[in-house]
Amino acid sequence: MLETCVTYSVLPASDLRRATAWYRDKLELEPEQTNEGGVLYGTGSDAKIYVYETANAGTAKNTSMCWLVDDIEATMAHLRERGVEFADYDFPGLTTVNGIATDEMGRSAWFQDSEGNYLCLTQPT
Prior knowledge:
Blueprint: E1 8-13, H1 16-25, E2 31-34, E3 38-42, E4 48-53, E5 63-68, H2 72-81, E6 90-91, E7 94-97, E8 100-103, E9 106-112, E10 118-124
Parallel strand pairs: 1-4, 5-10
Antiparallel strand pairs: 2-3, 3-4, 6-7, 7-8, 8-9, 9-10
């Protein structure tokens, strides 16, 4: 039943104004809808991102959302020009080179938004 449904990500923000500015300035996303509780973004497909204000923002230490991209290096270069910093990891099971980890599923790179949410780019194999 759910395999045919469109999903959307819900991301927490401790400061919605700051988060909205970050998503605009760093990721070039403009809100589709805004209400008192949050901001809804489109992503170029049917998928959506809803950013809402809560004191719980930034407490998750896991990946909250991933974008599937065709060219991870080009996407990273563009985001780096806009001030996005990518994480480097070096521990068993995950090592990055220039911010990119490679495994059997593809290549991935992680960064944090202004609220401490871990976001990801993935170029599937």
